[in-house]
Each structure stands twice: as C-alpha cells, then as structure tokens.
Amino acid sequence: MPELNQTFTLPRWRFTRWLVKIDADVPDEIRHALIGSLFGTLSIFVGGVVNTLLVAALIAWHLQRPQFFAWLALECLICVARIGVLLSASRRARAGRSTHTDIHILLSLAWAFSVGLGTFLSITSGDWLAAALACLSSAAMVGGICFRNFGAPRMAGLMILLALGPCCLGAVVAREPLFLLTLVQLPVYVASMTSASFRLNAMVVATMQSERENAYRARHDSLTGLLNRASLLAEIGAAMRRGRAVAVRPVLLYLDLDGFKAVNDAYGHGCGDDLLEQVAVRMRAAVPAGAQVSRIGGDEFVILLAGHGDDGVRALAGRLLVEIGAPYQLHGGVQAVIGVSIGIAPVPADGQSADAVLKTADRALYTAKARGKGRFHMAGTA
After folding, report:
1. What is the value of pTM for the model shown?
2. In degrees rounded to 5, what are phi and psi of residue 220?
3. In what order do the strands lie in the sheet with 339-346?
4. What pLDDT digit, counting tens, does each position of 68-79 carry?
5. CA nearest to 276, candidates 217, 216, 336, 235
6. What percentage of the chain reaches a pLDDT higher than 90?
7. With contact defined as beta carbons under 8 Å apart, do 145 and 159 qualify?
C-alpha cells in the first residue's frame, strides 16, 4: 500500500471511472485508499516487469523473427512508461497534486494487452517451446493482476481477459485440435479469477470500513458524536505545541449543564440522553469553524477555540448561555429548560500538561457556579 501521507487522485475519464467504480456508500477516504492500492505493491510490479521482459527477450532471441523483436520493443516501451508514471505519481501525491491516474490505468491495460499479444504470436508461430513459455508466463501474471488491482476488480477482470484471451484466438488460428481445449478452460479460468478479484475487493472494503469505524469510536463520544476526553487532551497538546507560532492563544471553554440532573431524574435516562444530544447539536451550531467540541463525561462539555481574542471568546460564551438555555422538546412531549455555566482558561504555549490546562478551566467553571450559575468566568480575572 502507498504511504499514509500520499493521496492519489480519482480517475476523471468516463471509461476509467467505470473500471474503478466503487459503491456509492463507500467514504471518500476509502475510495482514495483503493485508488492508491493500484500504485502500490511494487514488488509484484517489479516481478511482472522482469518476467515479461525476460520472456519476450528469450522468445525473440530463440525465434529471431521481426514480429517478436517488435513485441519486445513494445514491452520495453510500456514498462518504461509505467515506471515513469509510478515515480511521478508518488512525487505528485506527496505534493498534493494530480497523479494522472487515468494514464496509469490505461498503461496497465496496455501491458496486459502486450502480454496477450506475445502469447498469440508465440502460439501461432508454430514453435511450441515459445508457445509453452508465453502461455506459462501469461497465466503466471494473473495472480499478480488480481492481488495488485484488488481496488478495481473490473479493471483486474479486463486485464486478465486481455492477458489470457488471445490464447483462445491463437488456438483457433493455430488449428491444433488439442490446443482447442483452451476455448473451454480459459473462459472458466478468467471468470473464476475475476470473481476472486471482486471477492477480495469486498473483503478489503469491509475491513477498511470496520477499521475506520473503530478509529472513529475510539475518538468520539458514543452518544453525541463529539470528541471524547482522550481526543480532547490530544487536541490540547497539539494546540500547546502550536502556541509559539500563533499571535492569539487558544482557549478552553469548560461547560457544565445547570439543571440537567433534575431532568434526568424526573423523566428518565432516555429523556436525559435526548437532551444531551440536542445540547451537542446546539453547541456545534454555535461555535465557529475550526473549534473542537467534546463531551468529557456526564453533562460536561469542553470547547477548544483558536484564533479569537477575549472579546470574541466572551461573545461566544454569551451566545452559548442563550442557545443552551432555550427550551428543549424531548421524547414523549416533555419540555425541559436548563442552563449552563462556563469556565474559560487560556491554553499556554508550554510548561503545563493538557490535564493541568483542563483543571484550570474547571476551576474557572466552579467560580462561575459559585457566583450563581448561568454565567461564565475567565480564569485569572476577578
């Protein structure tokens, strides 16, 4: 697989898009990873290049005929072009530029066609040593085609057909009765290997989706979908490391819902969970782009805000007091009204742990609660 920091662009042409078509419900992250897999597994690529060039060279040397030297030249041209595109694509992917995926796909098809062409020429040459070597080589390529191109099973199927299909045509032209058995064998073989490619693709996509979901669950609160405590601490640490490079310090807003316990006790956990989900929605809508919203337990939330001065922070805190304090319509026709208290603390550039910064905001929160709730307090102010 390609490096994690590389992103290979999706194909743009209608034909190539069809070849790599992926189910609509597959996330873009996985789509790009599957496209990236077409550029990966370089050991298989190198093995295929070496095999096809050696076979073409040996048969051309053995038969000494112009068409086989032309086939060898075609193999060399395609292999050089593929290597050039692969190297260029790797550099461009790291730089975040277009990777010419369409050309890479067409060159892969051209390589499969060249393998099939050599097989056809060898079978019809009348030299059965050359025919056996070419057929063995093309059949050996199928496993690599399936494994290397599992991200695009349609493309893999077409490559297998291009590599092996000419065997059937060669059998007809050669008029060798025993060799006509390939007319039965090869369609079954092509169909089974193409089917295997589709099954491998389905298994890989399912695995990638499962890993993606597990990673999401590890970082997010299961009820609200907000970041969890571990993710918040990681974000605070990252903000502290960036602190020296920014003019305005990031800040934490530590929120605790006033009156939530009474609603939860009176109407049950179902209404309580519904209330927490609605609070999370209002928070997301209230914060500016780029702010990180997290639920760190119970009815406690934290917002990590960057790039806003004291006036902007106060304005956001005031907006949250109003938005969260508006009435809620819960399951079963229950209407609830709660409030919120907010503690605010700056995130220093260094010298403290993420936990220490969180505790500073927590102390500011309790100062706000001690002064009557439904208000905010900034750490370090009277």
Report:
1. 0.70
2. -125, 155
3. 292-297, 300-305, 251-258, 339-346, 376-378
4. 999 999 999 999
5. 336
6. 43
7. yes
Whether 316 contacts 306, CB under 8 Å: no
Distance separating alpha carbons of residues 198 and 146, to the nearest angstrom: 9
Cα–Cα distance measured from residue 44 to residue 235, given in angstroms and rounded to the nearest whole number = 40
How confident is the model over 195-250, as pLDDT tens digits? 888 888 888 888 888 888 888 888 999 899 999 999 999 998 888 887 665 667 88
Residues 6+ apart with CB under 8 A from 190: 157, 160, 161, 164, 165
- The fold adopted by the segment(s) 229-378 is Alpha-Beta Plaits (3.30.70)
Calculate mean pLDDT across residues 92-115.
91
Domain ranges (residues) in the chain: 14-218, 229-378
Strand duo 376-378 + 339-346: pairing: parallel
Structure tokens at 29: 């992250």
| DSSP letter string, 218-243 | HHB-TTT-SB-HHHHHHHHHHHHHHG
DSSP secondary structure code for residue 39 in this structure: T
**Alpha helices, DSSP H, located in 27-127:** 28-37, 42-63, 66-94, 101-123
Q: Is 336 helix (H, G, I), strand (E, B) or coil?
A: strand
What does the pLDDT read at residue 1? 45
Closest CA to 138 of 107, 106, 170: 170
- CA–CA dist 63, 122 (Å, integer): 9
Contact 152, 18 (CB under 8 A): no
In the prediction, which pLDDT does 351 show?
A: 66
- Concatenated DSSP letters of 129-196: HHHHHHHHHHHHHHHHHHHHTTT-HHHHHHHHHHHHHHHHHHHHHHT-GGGGGHHHHHHHHHHHHHHH
